[in-house]
């Protein structure tokens, strides 16, 4: 049988087309199946806790995460509340003791960097593994402005875009924390506690991860180029009590709230440079006694503030060895001989020079640490001291008078009006009781009179009580009862009746 070559070519072509179509369809089906499987897996992962298989610990962790993670706010944090320590290791964000960036975005997909229980809440996590083996945590942060996707991890040298710093649960191996804002101006980063539902204003920057009531090992805290102007006024117990070295540089500081430095009693190095402070805040005195939390300070840096007079009070710090006050607005470099002696004894000292037009009345120009001072002689210093003492005495007297007046007002408010009110209340109560008793007595008497047989027997009808029928006048203004008067009839009946009823 002879085979036509053209027929063979046609058959071969048909077979090739059929094979290509089959291969394409299979590839498309496989891709679709893979995509569907991936989508199903992702959906299943995001709804893993909807099937009722979540433990109580996981549910509590989710509730905590939602309550303490505002929508679309990026947090620098470490782990979750220590009260939720019973969650499994796989549910701890980035692992024990590892810092991370955490964010909850209800309207965006998560980055799948969080444990499943937080991913299910649209939580995104960026781990910072470079800190896990270091005893010094140094963060470079900037205010987050973009909504870009989160990477799964970042290294310690990268700038972290954040909004808020949550109280850090630090391992006992960490001894130093540094947070530096990156930008031309102090970065507006806020601070929040581990649990926003707890009452009070205490927001510690860091606590012990094992037990928040235990002391940390932190001895140094550095904050630079972070706007703390509001935080220092409204927050208490911010720094660990173990802190010895404290820096708050270029943080927009003007003054401090009463509780901000509470718990600090051992600071040896204090750097408050490049702020807007008009007061030294170290060595403030009553007489010659240090009265602040910074009485142990040895090195004090107030460079770049707005001091207008020489801060002599800092020399009430017994251990002061270095003082830096350059770039302030100090125009008066008049100091007493004792202060000049303390300046000379410092290991290091830096300040501006007095104005060229400055004069030294009542003293002599002397130099220490390459800076010229007007050292007042003993008589001038004594006069100034006496004037200052008199001023303090006047202030004390005025304050005492105010306290006495306030005490009198307090006593009067507490006891005076209350006693009057009590007397009035007691009198009113007695009057009310007496009136009530009289009313009851009157009602009993009325009932007795109404039921008395004599009165019942001899009762005069109301219609007969007409006095005009009982009274008539005779001659010479004589008044007598008429014969129509029932009262006269009653009298006769009483006189002539039963003696027992009279």
From TrEMBL:
Region (Disordered): 27-49, 421-441
InterPro entries found in the cross-reference section: Dev_Immune_Receptor, LRR_dom_sf
Keywords for the protein's UniProt record, in alphabetical order: Membrane, Signal, Transmembrane, Transmembrane helix
Cleaved signal peptide residues: 1-25
Keyword Calcium listed: no
Record's keyword annotation contains Transmembrane: yes
Record-annotated membrane-spanning stretches: 391-413
Biased composition (Low complexity): 27-46
Bias-annotated ranges (Basic and acidic residues): 431-441
Source taxon at top rank: Eukaryota
PANTHER family membership: SLIT RELATED LEUCINE-RICH REPEAT NEURONAL PROTEIN, TIR DOMAIN-CONTAINING PROTEIN
Protein name according to UniProt: Leucine-rich repeat-containing N-terminal plant-type domain-containing protein
Origin species: Phytophthora fragariae
